[in-house]
Structures are given as structure tokens and as C-alpha cells.
Amino acid sequence: MNKIDSSDKFKLAGHIEGLRSDQRGSLTLLAGMMVFLVTIFSIIAFDTNMAIYRRIVAQNAVDAAADSAALWQARGCNMLQQLNNLHYDVDTAACIAEGVAAGACIASDALLAAELAADVFFGAGEALRPIRIGTCFVCDTLPWIDYGQQLFYKAIMPVEQAIVDITPFLAFGYANACAYGSGANNVFDSALQTIEEGVSLIPGVGDLSGSGVSSAIGNVLGDIPIYAMPLDPTSLELYVDKKDNDGSPPLNWPEGVGIAGEVAGDIGCEDAEPAPPYPESQESAQEAGWDGDGTWGWNDQYYFGHPGYMTWIAGVTNRDELLHLGNLAWLNGGMKNSNYQQNGEQVSKLMWTGPANGNSGGYSKFQIPAYIAIASSQIEGTPVICHGDVDAQGKLIKVYLPGKTPGDDFLIYH
Amino acid sequence: MMAEACIGLALMALAWILISYSLFLANNDIRTEMAARYAAWHQGASGDGTAVTASQVDQYFFFQSGLSTVSSVPPALIGDVITGNMPADSGNYSPDSSGGDGPFKVKVTFGVSDPNSSSNPFPFDLLKTHVPFMPDSMMATYSVSSTCQWDGTGETWRSPGKALEGIWNTLKDTVTSTIKKML
Question: 3-state class of B66 per DSSP?
Fold first, then answer.
């Protein structure tokens, strides 16, 4: 049996005393703790940066989408206005030309009378005949002008209607392209995740992210490639309609002008070559395939109106934070005990003893949250009218939400 | 005692270098997103597809000049949305063929290409610092970038000629992108 003598006791006491007074390594320990704390706070700063970044991406995407949609509405309105202006100019030209032709028909009557009088009194009626025949040439253009105007009207209105019909789809398509190109994720996924995150913050409701309903909705809607959408889909429409004009020339050219020209031409140009305008020229026009409405003059409709504002939504989905540290159970230890959530402070938190990571315990792991963003846009400029400036342009505006009833909408055109 | 102090200080110095550099890049990553939005919007609103310069971006968004680049990349079109395939960022893309119609997609990059360059400013030059007792300070990422896409809001087809040209470009781009994705 070994015995500890007095000298060994002194050595042991000296060692213990030495350990007490030895401060070697304490700075390394302190530095390590500080580095650990700084790293933790740095990770928090990183994740905050990432959250800010994702929020900006969502806002940029929805702004790009709203601006793009307004642009396409403006382009649609500008094309309509250009066609309205062309329609108006053609009507004006036809109005003038038909007025001149009808005037020539009436003038042919006066020239015929003068020709007969000159023949009776002076025997020189033949001298005036070439002038009357020349006038009849002009008179003979009357039905062609009328048919031409009607043909133009029949051609331009379907083109304008096509613009009205196609523009909302282009606005929607290019808005989505811009949102997609700007980094937006599927808008349904983003919205569902944002709602889930919001609901999970309500005490007593808990986490919906794993619920069957939201998963099923997410699976169905997540397959639809939509990255931005308007809160009110009807706001994509141009809201332009065919309307009667105000009745003044050249919008409404009275039938009496053509009738007067026809009757006058039948008298003044009866013996003239070419034939008087009606009915021979009408037949010629029909033989050429010109399908008129069988009446003189016109009362054309034009497209009038303007779209209202649009409010768009787009977003980004959630994602894991830096190094996936939010999956570690030690960062979520208290959440593992379901009794703690149910009974609040009455139940002590238990240390989680299961896997260190993964989501098998059903806790809410830390994530960079999903964000949805909202933006409104509208077009500015002259509304589509029968003849006006082509100056529509899209613009982002302060966010306006559709009201509860149509009368509550904040329509702020111009 | 002195040795432990040196190791502790070296550990803190290394952590400071890596963390300050990383936070610097993370912070400028946000700036690239804002700069990309401005660059894409500006190009779309110009009416003729005029792109912003790197110096403009430097002036408005970054504290250090000469570290950013602005480049046009292929935009996502309707066909890409339907198929869910984002066009790859081609380095040789030129948006001139579409005039000012858009859409335009711009990529803004901030950082350096060569971490060993002697002209690199702070904090990139910190990466070349070798702290005693510590491993190399070099990291894997030396630049951050963001992209943003904006439509040609400056070209609203106010003249018949521009409208016809725009319709042709739209049809061509839409059909081309859709067919490419479907093949």
C-alpha cells in the first residue's frame, strides 16, 4: 500500500495552488466566446439582409408587372386612337369628296338648263356641252365614294375590336413576363406562404404550413405559371365601347346629300357618257364586289373610353436562411413541447432530445419569409375619342384597392 | 500568456475580416437589386433602349466606383413564362433588335473578378491578409449580382409606323420564344 508522505502533500498543494493562480488560456476562451457571439449576430445580419433583398425583389417584380400592364393598355389605346383618327380623316375626305360630287351633279342640272337656253336663244348649246360632260365625270364618282367609305368602315371596325379583345391578354402576358424576369415566384405559392406565416403569428392558431388544405391548394395552384396577377381581372380591359357620334359632319353625313346628287345626276347627266351615277354606277360598284349598305351617307360609330387603374400582386416564396441553421433543434428547443404551446407558462419547457435537425417534431423552423407586394398603375393621356391626341402612357401610381362596392372604387384617371 | 493573447487576437482578427467582407457583399447585394431595377427601368423608359452606364450606377447606388458592371441579358417573354424556363444570361445579348419596345432585362454586378489583383480596394484587399496562426482568408465569392426586367414603357406606339413595327416585333418575339421552348 502506497503512503503519501508529507513531501507529496506539499507537492499536491503546490499544484492546486498553481492551478488557482494560472490564467493561461483564459484569453483564448474569451476570444472564442466573443467570436461565437459575433458570428451569431453576423448570421442574423446576413438573414436580415436576405429578407430585405427578397422584399425588394418582390416589390420590383410587382412594379415591373404593373408598369408593363399599363404600357400595353396605353399601346392598345394609342392604336385605337390612331385608327379612330384615320377613320375620322377618311370620313372627312369622303365627306368633302361626296359633297363635291353631289355638287357637280346639281351643277350638271344648271349647265343643262344653260345649255338648253343657249341652244334656244343663240343656237350655241353645243359649246356648253363639254363643260357639262366634264361635270358629269365628277358627278359619276358619287356612288364610288359612298361605297368606298362604307367599305373602309367595315374593314376598320373589326381591326379595332381585335385590339380591344387582344390587349388585355398581352397586358397580362407581358406583366407576367416582367415579374418572372425580375425574380418573382409563383404568385399563388407566395400568397399562400405569406398567409400561412401571418396566420401562424396569431396566438392559438398555430402553423398551417403542413395542413392538408393549404398543401392541396398549393399543389394545384403552384402548377399554374402565373407570377403576377391583378386583384381585379376585369381591370385589364380597355373599357372602350362603340358609341354613336355627336351627329355633326363628317361623323354623320346626311343621306339627303347623296339622294340630291342622285336625282340631280339623273337629270343633268342623263344623256352624258359616262352614265349618270345611279343606278349604273351602283351596279358597276356591286359588280366590283363592293358591298354597300344600299343607302347614301353614313352614321358611323367610333370607339370611346379609357381603362381604369389596375392593382397587381406578386411575390416571392420563403427560403432557408444562411447555412440552414434554422433547421437546428437547439434554435427551436422550446417549440418542441406541444404542451408548452397549449398551456402557456403553466408547463415548463423541456429540452428537445430528438434529432438535432430536420422537421420531424413539427416545429416552425426559421426561414426567410415569403413576401407579397402590391402595386397600382394606370394610363394617362387623352381618352380614346373619335379624333384626339395619341398620347396615352402607362404610369405607376399610389396603391389603390378596389372598394367594397363599385361606387367605392378610387377611379383616378387623369 | 502572450501566446494565448496572440491566438485570441488572431482568431478575432480573422473573424473580423471574414465577417466584415461578407456583410459588405451582402449589403451591396441589396444595392445591386436596386441598381438593376433602376437600370432596367431607365432602359425601358428611354424610348430607344438606351442602357445606363456603370458610372451612373456607381454614382447612384454604390459607395465605391469602378466595381460595378451593367449588362443586358435576354428577357423572359410570354413563351418563357408558359414553359417556366428562364432564358440563360447570355453575355453577348443585344436588345437593339427590338428598338425601344422592350422588355429589357439588365444584370448589375458588383465586385472584383480577380481577388489577387493588387489594385483591389477595401475590403477585397483584406482577403489577401494572412493572419498569424489562422488559415487563409480567401473566400469563394468575390462579386454579387442582381437582374431586373422592365418593359419598354417609353415606347407607347404613338405613330402608325412605330405601332406596326412594334406589332411585328411582338409577334416575332412571342412566336419565336414559344417555338424555341416547345422544341
Answer: coil
C-alpha cell at B12: 478575432
Q: What is the pLDDT of residue A170?
A: 93
Contact call for residues A311 and A374 (beta carbons, < 8 A)? yes
Locate A282 and state its grid cell.
351602283
pLDDT category at A363 given cuts 50, 70, 90 is low
- Phi, psi dihedral angles at A303 (to 5 degrees): -90, 130
Residues of B in contact with A394 (CB under 8 A): 153, 156
For chain B, how many structural domains are there in total?
1
Give the residue numbers spanning the domain of B140: 2-182
Q: Find out whether A183 and A60 touch, Cβ atoms under 8 Å.
A: yes
Asked whether A178 and B44 are in contact (CB, 8 A), the reply is no
Residue B180 CA, chain-centre distance (Å), reads: 26
Give the DSSP letter string of A293-316: -SSSSEE-EEEEE----EEEEEEE
A79–chain B nearest CA distance, Å? 7
Nearest to A145 by CA among A248, A258, A259: A258
User: How far is residue B45's CA from residue B100's CA, in Å, rounded to a whole number?
Assistant: 8
Q: Which residues contact A276 (CB under 8 A, 6 or more apart)?
A: A136, A139, A140, A265, A266, A268, A269, A270
Structure confidence at residue A24 (pLDDT): 66
User: Which positions in chain B touch A56 (Cβ < 8 Å)?
Assistant: 30, 33-34, 37
Grid coordinates standing for B70?
Answer: 451593367
- Distance in angstroms (rounded) separating the CA atoms of residues A34 and A32: 5
Question: What was the pLDDT predicted at A58?
Answer: 96
Helix (H) or strand (E) holding A116: helix A26-121
Residues of A with CB below 8 A from B4's CB?
24-28
Q: How high is the mean pLDDT in each 10-residue block of chain B (183 residues)?
A: 82 91 93 96 90 94 93 89 79 66 92 86 88 85 93 92 88 78 67
pLDDT classification of A270: cutoffs 50, 70, 90: confident
Residue A312: which region, alpha, beta or left (left: phi > 0; alpha: psi -120 to 50)? beta
For chain A, give the percent of residues with pLDDT over 90.
35
* Model confidence band, residue A25 (pLDDT cutoffs 50, 70, 90): low
